[in-house]
Amino acid sequence: MHEPHQDPPQRSQAAQTAGISMSHPPENPPPRPAHAGLELVGELRGEALRLGFSRVGVAAAVPPPNHGAFRGWLAAGLAGSMQGWLERHEPLRRNLDAILPGASSVVMLATDYAVGDSPAAESVPPGAGRVARYARGDDYHDLLRKRLSALAGWLEVRVPGTRARGVVDSAPLAERDFAWLAGLGWFGKNTMLIDPRSGSYFLLAALVTDLELPAEEPLDTDHCGTCTACLDACPTGAFPAPRVLDATKCIAAITIEDHGPVAESRRADLGDWIFGCDVCQEVCPWNRHAPGSTEPAFEPRGSEASLSLADLLALDNATFRMQFRGSPILRAKRRGLLRSAAIVLGNRPHPPAFEALAVAAADNDAIIRGAAAWALGRWITAGVMPAEARQAVRARLGSERDSSVRVELEAALAVPDGADV
Question: Exposed, middle or buried by CB within 10 Å (0-12, 13-18, 19+), for 217?
Fold first, then answer.
């Protein structure tokens, strides 16, 4: 039995919606399809690959084998801002009838998403913030839903009377448990599913059907061996044990799912990440030869792998929605993204962005103001434009009414110029 793990937000975006519409059996359901053979599975695999999926596996619709560990992980309070949603939907994860009544098989589909140079070859210019690789292009949910819909339609025509439902993060399904059962990889120490041929830079989607298909054999071998590169490299120490993620410390969970203030003890550890984090995948030896993707939808928007922090801080609600329409980054909301942008400017001061940071200290959103105040304090302690930063903090302190923001402003003024950051 593997140790506790769960779907980390930086990869699967579990709970993309607040709930699902449950399917109900028709009043006069068609006869349940009989057991299908390997020939049909081969045809299904061929159609899935034709539609653009990278790999395919089949699992039986059994209770998730690691559900007990998942419940223990929730009981330990390690889910971060996703705790409430996951607790409410935990009972539904145990039975696939909640997704499709009469479910018999789960077709798991992997889609490689990494495009361009390897992460080791990337560099982030001054004044820019990093975005996780999966989120640099268009929203993968839209792409995978279209492919799933086409595959479900193909199966329902190929085997009349079959019912199928596609799932991309929006239903309480233990995708990685079923992907493991379907032979698509093993659970890495960073909680990611790792394919020995393809690494971990892939997305998961599922097609749940009432058709009984021959199941694959799970990959029982743990190919991580004695390697602890991912555990050692995590900037925040978010892995209390191998294959256990503490989402309260995970940069991806903080920058994507948590839209409130970031604990002061976590801010410096964000480094230059503004949305997601790939560190535990970047250092994984199994990703050195990942096949990558040529899918245009995964190409970075504007050919940029990073985003200008000053430009982000200048976005109002309307321009934020316009710029990130159809992008996974919309998930962070304006508050979360601009808060993270301000924190990164505190970690990596960039003088040309000073005016944008000073303006952000007067933003309408108190969360953004507080992050900008902290960042200005970091400029003071680092000796980067300290006089200008002090002036901006003092100017805001005179009119600030939010007590939590005032604490940040007062703390910014309490450290002498040029102290260690």
Answer: exposed
Using DSSP, state whether 275 is helix, strand or coil: strand
387 Cβ contact partners less than 8 Å away, ≥ 6 residues apart: none
**DSSP β-ladder status, 273-275 and 128-131:** parallel
Q: Running DSSP on this structure, what letter comes out for residue 364?
A: S
Who contacts 129 (Cβ-Cβ below 8 Å, separation ≥6)?
Answer: 272, 273, 274, 275, 306, 307, 309, 312, 340, 341, 344
Q: In degrees rounded to 5, what are phi and psi of residue 354?
A: -60, -45
∠ CA 332-142-162, rounded to 5°: 130
Is the model's pTM score more than 0.85?
A: yes
For residue 377, the SS3 value is helix
Place of tokens 């007062």: 410
| C-alpha–C-alpha distance, residues 23 and 88, integer Å | 18
Residues assigned a catalytic role: 169
Burial of 46 (0-12, 13-18, 19+ CB in 10 A): exposed
Side-chain-side CA neighbours of residue 415 (13 Å): 22
- Tens digit of each residue's pLDDT (9 = 90 or more) over 65-114: 999 999 999 999 999 999 999 999 999 999 999 999 999 999 999 999 99
